[in-house]
Amino acid sequence: MTTIDITNAFNSTPHNVIFNALNRMAVSPQFQKYLRMFLKQRECNLGKNIQCGVPQGDSLSMQLFCISINKIIQQIEKKYEVVVYADDILIGHESKISSDQIIGECQKMFSTIGLEINPNKCKSTENNQEIIFMGQRFMKTSPISRADHLLATARQCIDVIDFAPLSLQIKLLMLSLIAISKVNFGPLIQQAPIDNSKEK
Predict the structure, then answer these.
(1) 120 and 172 co-located in one domain
(2) Which residue has the higher pLDDT, 43 or 31?
(3) What are the b/e assignments for 92-113, b being 16+ CB within 10 Å?
(4) 80 touches 91 (CB < 8 A)
């Protein structure tokens, strides 16, 4: 497995890439006009219009970033297993394929939309090294889907809460705060089916 680090991801996404993606999705001109104002009618302290990046801290920004890289992610999914959460990317691949090859392929693909990969920050499970992705530990033999592990952990929490000498209200509160959060890793559970007929 290999993680991919996009250099300064949210601040580097070109606006033209975002609007090209919105056009492919047939987003209405009216909404695109609003988004253009949202992105472009800001100025830096040098007085120059900003031509790339999405505003930090806005929920819409993550959506726009994800839309802009979706085409590249779909290309990667044709060859490998992929888990993506915004700019956090984990790629599952056969051991005969080196992480350097994966990083090189991603560099070429992301460069087509003006984004760069930082090889020094990409991690791999090669040489039995451990990587941490979205708070989960992965080794070379770990499955890319953590559904079984996360659900088992949630069941343990539910059993402990169920037998605890607590009121029903407190149990429900603990269930929402502890047990549910254990499976709140959708990208690590919901995997697109892989076509095994494709040559890897």
Answers:
(1) no
(2) 31
(3) bbeeeeebeebbebbbebbeeb
(4) yes
